[in-house]
Specification:
about 80% helix; globular; disordered N terminus
């Protein structure tokens, strides 16, 4: 039986690769519209305020999808829930190709947002099932790096696809990728095999951690642990979405850079994000291997990541390539921060509730993002009307640079010591 252990490990890493691939497709799909914004500004004739509203509609739908799929995945399992999710959002991606105006594009974003809500609850649930607590931040960092790869692949490929076959073809290609993923996903093992799990130290340890009774979904809001994650994601999720949705427009307005001709600044930013986010996960694993307590590892790493975002406050004083480096550092820090926050769910709640708390806190992040993206669009439109469009970005980056330190302080005040919820605790 012990000879079967390498096979058990190979299953885990194959499944982790599938989570990485799904996250890459997920971010590729949601990034296409921002990459094509300079083209669609002329095709659809929308304003920055209308574009910001469309992105807010997407994020409101995504918030609903997170909560909906969190419940579905905890009840019916990550395997089937994930398949439904990616089929749903692939249909949404395809529908963009048939949009003819602002309203139809908004409807396509609703379909996409609802479906994409299943990606992270399913991924976190799968990591919780297949990896021990000591491995989860690193495993989460690896699959979450797909977000960076998707954001990197989009500017490197979408402008060329759109130029060669029309902007609609980019959405069609993204939708097809999702359907291909589902075929492979349904061939993966459903769960760790029990006989092999008995011989797997990591999985045996994971089973020992499951000592708490499941918390009814409706009672999650009674726990301060839930509110700590809700507030952290409400404050910091909007910053990453701002990077995804507005950086092409920022470089265009701040430097007159034509993303349609060359997306090199975005490609460099997301290449940096990919590398630095993985280094961030490695840092967390390094601190854990030193024998530090879970509380110390999570808090110290989160503080480091929060400080790495602060320099974006000063982007108005930098040249373009310095800004690229600063944004790459900030994006990498966000992704490492995000991996730690995702893992806090499994640090503080039993496995049976991980997808639900991920969906619930994710919904809070999307509510914050809806408000922030709307505010960004209105702010930029106001400054554009004053003849100084780029100054609006200076104010927005000040908010971005301070959000993570504020979230860290709030989390530390609510949760002085990170531990699993106890029955009757509030």
């Amino acid at each position: 039986m012990l000879q079967e252990q390498p096979r058990q490990d190979s299953f885990r890493w194959m499944i982790l690769f599938m989570l990485f691939a799904a996250t890459t497709i997920n971010y590729l799909d949601r990034q296409i519209l921002s990459i094509l914004k300079p083209i669609l500004d002329q095709e659809l004739g929308w304003t920055d305020a209308q574009y910001g509203m469309i992105m807010s509609i997407f994020q409101a739908s995504y918030a609903v999808g997170l909560t909906m799929f969190g419940w579905i995945i905890d009840k019916y399992g990550a395997r089937m829930g994930f398949a439904i999710s990616i089929i749903w959002w692939s249909v949404g991606a395809l529908s963009h190709a048939f949009a003819v105006g602002v309203k139809s594009m908004g409807l396509s974003r609703v379909i996409l947002g609802l479906g994409e809500g299943g990606n992270f609850p399913a991924s976190i649930k799968t990591v919780t099932n297949w990896f021990s607590s000591g491995e989860r931040v690193f495993a989460t960092t690896l699959f979450n790096s797909g977000a960076n790869v998707g954001a990197l692949v989009a500017p490197a490929t979408i402008p060329f696809i759109a130029a060669a076959w029309g902007w609609q073809s980019a959405f069609i290609a993204a939708g097809v990728l999702g359907f291909i993923w589902v075929i492979f996903w349904l061939r993966m093992p459903k769960n760790p095999r029990m006989k092999l799990a008995e011989e797997s130290a990591a999985l045996a340890q994971a089973e020992k951690e499951e000592v708490s009774a499941s918390i009814p979904w409706r009672k999650l809001l009674a726990y301060r642990q839930s509110w700590s994650l809700i507030l952290v994601r409400f404050l910091t999720d909007p910053i990453w979405w701002f990077f995804l949705f507005w950086l092409p427009d920022f470089f265009s307005k701040h430097f007159g850079y034509n993303i349609k001709e060359s997306a090199l600044p975005l490609i460099v930013i997301y290449a940096l994000v990919t590398v630095l986010s993985i280094l961030g996960g490695t840092l967390t694993k390094f601190l854990a291997n030193r024998g530090w307590s879970l509380n110390k590892v999570r808090k110290i790493s989160m503080l480091i990541f929060a400080c790495c975002v602060v320099p974006v406050i000063f982007v108005q004083y930098f040249d373009m390539w310095t800004i690229v480096a600063v944004l790459g550092l900030a994006g990498g820090a966000h992704q490492a921060w995000s991996a730690s926050v995702y893992t806090l769910g499994s640090d503080m709640f039993p496995k049976s509730d991980v997808a639900s708390i991920t969906g619930l806190s994710g919904m809070a992040g999307q509510i914050g993002s809806v408000l922030f993206q709307t505010a960004v669009g209105l702010t930029l439109s106001w400054f554009a009307a004053q003849g100084n469009a780029s100054h609006g970005y200076d104010i927005i980056f000040m908010v971005c640079g301070s959000a993570y330190l504020a979230a860290f302080v709030i989390f530390t005040l609510i949760i002085p010591n990170i531990k699993m919820v106890a029955p009757g605790e509030r």
